[in-house]
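Quick one, T. Sequence first:
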Amino acid sequence: MPDRGGGPTGPRIRAGRPSRGVRTLLMTLGVLAVLGMAFTMFAGFWTDWLWYRSVHYSSVFTTTLWTKIGLFFVFGLVMAVAVGVNIWLAHRLRPPLSAMSTEQQSLDRYRMGIAPYKKWLLLAVTALVGLIAGASAAGQWRTWLMWVNGVPFHQKDPQFHLDVSFYAFDLPWYRFLLGFGFAAAVLCLIAAALTHYLYGGLRVTSPGARATAAATGHLSVLLGIFVALKAVAYWLDRYGLAVKSSDFKATGNWTGLRYVDANAYLPAKTILFCIAVICALLFFATLWRRTWQLPVIGFGLMVLSAILIGGLYPAIVQKFQVEPNEQTKEAPYVQKNLKATREAYGIDDTKVTEYAGKSTTSDKTALRSDADDAASIRIMDPNIVSPTFQQAQQMKNYYAFPTNLDVDRYPTKDGKEQDTVLGLRELNLAGVPKNNWINDHFRYTHGYGVVAAKGTEADDQGQPVFTESNLPSEGDLGTYQQRVYYGEKTTTYSIVGGPQKEVDYSADNGDEKTTSYTGTSGVNLDSPINRAAYAVAFNEPQILYSGAIGKGSRILYNRTPKERVEAVAPWLTIDGDTYPAVVDGHVQWIVDAYTTSNGYPYSSRTTLGDTTADSLTATNNNRAVVAQQNQVNYIRNSVKATVDAYTGEVKLYQWDSQDPVLKTWMKAFPGTVQPKSAISKDLLAHLRYPQDLFKVQRELLTRYHVTDAQTFLTGSEVWQVPDDPTNDSGSAVPPYYLSMKMPDQSGQSFSLTTTFTPNGRDNLSAFMAVDSDPGTSDYGKIRILKLPTSTTADGPKQVQSQFNSRPDIAETISLLSRGHSKVEYGNLLTVPLDGGLLYAEPVYVLGGNKLKYPLLGKVLVTYNGKTAFEDTLDEALNKVFGVQGSTTTPPDTGTSNPPSSANPTVQQALADAQKAYDAGQKALQAPNGPDWAAYAKAQKDLKDALQRAQEAETKAGQSGGGKNGSGKKS
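Structure tokens:
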């Protein structure tokens, strides 16, 4: 047997120690792991730099990067030095001999254990706290840039008479510095105390004094610094009262000083500041008087004062002075809040007009004519007809339309503007014939063309009347670059411009039309370093070695308009609804962006995520606002941005030249925002008032439409935004774009509209519209029509309920819903007309086949208590106003007879309608695809059958002294 001890019979083997080969292997693996981590970090940094350089916003990247690096090193170094110096000082001030006690004998083991590593341990501790502090400070880059670049608002708060910029730009930075100071003081205190304890300067159980004189002086100075910082905190808290949020039972959410703040908390903070200064001086005095007696007494006095003066006294003032006479006491402060809130949200110039809510005009012909002038009522709901666009104009499965289409205005052939519903055919990878890496990222790279339809018309089959259609798209929009490389649905990367051809579309003869990207967007992949970096960043090794990538290949990513604008302007809040427009021969995505602040004194705060939520955001997360700061009390639509759908070029335009927040960011990032004068005339024609700003303003106006403090406090005039009556989500009704005329306007203007109901009730209390046409001097002007409280006018939910409860309408809805069909209600539009309110709502029918796309079936209209449910808008308006038009239906008298199923003529007509319906479904489900000719014939037969049923019921109703309100299906 060999000698394991390494004697003469064999070599010595060292147990537990790996061989040289294993050590080499482990070291190699360790080096490779470190290099891999380093390259991964480098790849993230390098790809970000390449992307910002490709969009020509490298200054945003460098400014942000250097600001973060500067803050990281400065504050990390300060924290590390502060903690390190105090540890070193505590070690230097250790007593020469430790007391002979069980406690000190136990500590001797630790002292001896760390003695060889004291320097390394000191470096490790200081490096750790420095890294944590530096990382925290780097996250405050926005706060720093706003402080160092802040410009004045030229408005002063009513309490301290300081410029608003102090609260918006300065105070947040001072609070960060104060918080950093507290953290440094606490860490230094803990580190020093532990070091003193380890080396005998502090004792817990040993006999004699608990602390040496040196430890007492050292720790008391640190405590004095902490208390001095508390004094600074008390002083800043005085100004913080102007932006403090609280729950005020009279108004709910409240920001600013109230009576108890101005008369109790404010003097209390001043007194506590003085006490804290004195207490800090007492702690510093221990350097000369090595005793804790006076500092402890001072600290106890400060704590007691904080309880009595800062807590109990304000509670007494609130209970015995404010609550017995709250309205009188709080009224002056409420008035300040009213003024500041209205200014901060841009609602101070809102025009409120009393409105009757009911028309008294007896001239029906004049009313009918006025209805046409009052609004271009849109019967194509952009939030419903996307599946119809999809079915009629998708053309290829690898194209798709967004869930919610957009409303814009485009000129007709005679030069007049009309409301237009439009969407882009965007790339739909789910529809690619065969999904693989080459198809998904090289061949199918873009969408193709705009599809647009008239907003106020439908054809005989209930389909949109397209003004731009087919593939390639053609129509009223003229010639433009139709390829869509950047869009709302384009969420993956594509590699273009190389040897691999891209698919445009397949022609009618089956030939595949291909293209190669010629734009300058994206990052060039010619460099092996770039390819390796993107292979790591996208976790796709094929990018590194694929032969499909060659000279000229470029990688496109960050392709949705919102994420591109957010990336190049990380200080902006992005509106949830971006929309496309054909501008100067290009498809441009238009993005509304906001500057916000949380520091406007006396202005009440709102939560953007909640305030901008409605029934559309509840079902489509892509419409949610992208907020840099969710809690705000100041907002401006200060920037209009565009993203070219082909080149990806991002442009930012200064829309609000007076906004001090934007001016501050423009100082921080010079050259990133172009002046308003750079907006072309063609682009200006497509800009509009943004929805999310409007939703924030309407939410504030539910309470802040009043300007009198007493009325505000009583809450008698509080409104609410009604729930969407056509949606079961229980969310607020979305605002609607509509060309309409308010009573004080001479003609129609593109507007954004909404309604209000009284708090807790469903009748209408007000109608609100904002002029959304930037081509007019009234752009952004908010008008509110306030209905009288002595009478009631039906609100949206009541109108919808009346629609659903009428027997004749219910019977027609039942007919339209036969088989597997489904009825879906469109946007319920409200239009002021001659003192009354006209409601109009399109009704769509979704076929019972697999396609299930909506076609316009009927139009509901109500005015002054009269309701019509007809095939077309004109017919419905004629019936409501009792005017002979294209239909001979007599005026609605407010009564109706349900259709009689015993009438043999009606029975036969309904049987024919069912046959026609079945024939239409069969045509849609033909083996070789939908037979549109057969479907059109079936729809005509169905229309004729329903017309016969209606005529038979009308005759029966007239012979019975009544009438029927059901209509034919278009």
